[in-house]
Design a protein that fits this description.
The chain has 184 residues and is an alpha+beta fold. The chain has a domain at 12-136: Gcn5-related N-acetyltransferase (GNAT) (Aminopeptidase, 3-Layer(aba) Sandwich), CATH 3.40.630.30. It has four helices and eight strands, in the order ββααβββαβαββ. Strands 1-2-3-4-5-6-8-7 form an eight-stranded mixed β-sheet, sandwiched between helices. The radius of gyration is 16 Å and the shape is globular.
């Protein structure tokens, strides 16, 4: 069951990062990474071909109040996002009456393989379990996206089931894996 989410007044911090709501002033940083071919595609969306497209999505992030901007403390640059999304898959009966959400994330290509996403997702997991009191979290990755798989495995997400995800561009269907983390 989807839990209600509103991160309007939430700011989370790690050693290197600030996780906060998106602001219109973040448009240039957002477009910088969202326009790079291969970044969005690893998360299931086509890279942005115009700043207008980025602005449209940015306004949606602000309105929906469920997507954190990942800000690098050292320079205040937005380098990615983590959304606490509605569950997209049918769940087994054992999860029916429990509160949960699905995480989705993306990171500026310049910051890949530096442990940043693990740090950010770990902080959001802690927030979801200890503040929001969710019972479980899901996350999925395209099977070719080994880096995303490693992030989830390092945070103790466990295999839940194989799925097919239809991407938001070109209606391409990708073999994917859905992972589960329970709040025990």
């Amino acid at each position: 069951m989807n839990a209600e989410i509103n991160i309007s007044n939430v700011i989370l911090e790690t050693d290197r990062l600030i996780l906060r709501t998106w602001e219109l002033k973040d448009l240039d940083d957002f477009f910088e990474y969202a326009s790079v071919e291969g970044v969005g595609e690893k998360a299931g969306w086509e890279h942005h071909k115009s700043k207008d497209k980025s602005l449209e999505i940015l306004k949606m992030f602000i309105e929906e109040k469920k997507v954190f901007a990942i800000v690098l403390k050292e320079n205040q640059k937005v380098i990615g996002s983590i959304g606490i999304e509605e569950l997209s898959e049918e769940l087994d009966k054992d999860l029916d009456n429990l509160l949960g959400r699905e995480l989705g994330y993306v990171l500026n290509k310049d910051y890949w393989n530096k442990g940043i996403m693990k740090e950010a997702v770990s902080k959001v997991v802690d927030y979801c379990f200890n503040t929001l009191k969710l019972n479980f979290l899901m996350a999925s990755y395209f099977n070719y996206n080994i880096a995303s798989k490693r992030v989830l495995e390092n945070l103790n997400f466990k295999f839940y089931k194989d799925i097919i995800i239809e991407t938001r561009y070109n209606n391409i269907k990708e073999k994917s894996t859905l992972m589960l983390l329970k709040n025990d």
